[in-house]
Amino acid sequence: MHPRLTPSCDRRQFLRVGGAMAASSLLGHGAWGAPQAKPxxxxxxxxxxxxxxxxxxGCGYVRTPAFDRLVQGGTRFALSYTANPLCSPxxxxxxxxxxxxxxxxxxxxxxxxxxxxxxxxxxxREADYECVYAGKWHLPMGHTTSIPGFRVxxxxxxxxxxxxxxxxxxxxxxxxxxRSKDKPFFLVASFMQPHDICEWLCLNAHxxxxxxxxxxxxxxxxxxxxxxxxxxxxxxxxxxxxxxxGVSNDWSEEQWRFYIWSYYRHIEMVDAEIGRVLDALETNxxxxxxxxxxxxxxGEGLGHHQTVRKNNLYDAAAHVPLVFxxxxxxxxxxxxTGRVVSGMDITPTICxxxxxxxxxxxxxxxxxxxxxxxxxPGGEFxxxxxxxxxxRMVRTPEYKLITYMDDPNSQLFDMRHDPGETRNLIDDPAQxxxxxxxxxxxxxxxxxxxxxxxxxxxxYWRG
Length: 463
Hints:
Layout: H1 19-24, H2 28-31, E1 40-46, H3 65-73, E2 75-81, H4 87-94, H5 100-103, H6 119-126, E3 130-135, E4 151-154, H7 161-178, E5 185-190, H8 197-203, H9 235-243, H10 245-248, H11 253-283, E6 290-296, H12 315-318, E7 322-325, E8 334-342, H13 346-354, H14 368-371, E9 382-386, E10 391-395, E11 399-404, E12 411-414, H15 432-447
Parallel strand pairs: 1-5, 1-6, 2-8, 3-4, 3-5
Antiparallel strand pairs: 2-7, 6-7, 9-10, 10-11, 11-12
């Protein structure tokens, strides 16, 4: 599950900014062969999905036939990270190719800054796509009939995935059955699950004297190997842990395991709805000419480091699944273990396949070259930010540095040998050069940011 990666620490490779220029030079009608008709695009997004939750990718605690189809039919990225492990910020980055401090969506329920197009606006205007949206939006409203650049098929109706996701899948299947086919489509299918685990946590927060369903005892997954946590964490991380349901209510090991078991059931619920959309894609003749992109906005604590939910920079919250498929162009059943990719790479990649340049100033890179089995710019590192941009993470194939504004405690993890992030090496003299290099990467990245006017402390990280 955790591949050993080849070290690559040349700082000169790491200036991952100005991606628009790189992406626009790799348009499908130039770099990868003869001109082709624009593919349809289906963008499937789940909410709060832990990276290791797909049976075909190695998770033994779930049945996920739809996710398995995506993994087996496409290329999956092992080192895929959200731009921000919180709902609205992450979505703003995926739909613009820009970091959340630039989109202005630094916390939930904010709108993307008005001078920055979202992917629907861009593809509709620049590539003449029919852009439609079903499900959760959350930029700013979770469920709305008005989304810039899109025709809204379904709002998802409620904030609960166990009800709204069925409406989302049925709206998508109806659209695929009845559309005119005059234009290629860009369809966003945005599901709420497994986000309902938040409601489960609220309902089951109290300490249980016994398992409510004793017959499940033999089915409960084990605690994660990294259930422990770093005593020298930054205060925002340790503070959130103290307030979560499991720690504050002194859960037993069995109750923690019951929570993990329950989370996997939420995964299976959304898998069923995604399966309906994939079936409709095939049944209505779009299976061979549709680029499918699947990812999640962020992950879920799932007991790693005794965390639940999101909004921290440990892998449980920040590491997300990412799969691309397109028959004849993208290899099936492949796993990319070498590139570090970000939610910001989704917009330039889709634009590349659509045959248009990415919007101005995107910070991500098109992955089309890598998906074709060749090379592509970027991939050496990514940056994620969290909690009103008070914390940032730099991730390379080998290491992860986590640092928070004005907090004396930072974290360095050797992700090749400690993928569970159990040994903080920040004070190890042997890692001084690594820490200096990663801090340099972050500083270089920050100096080029066009920080949105509404972002608090917007000048702090710029020096």
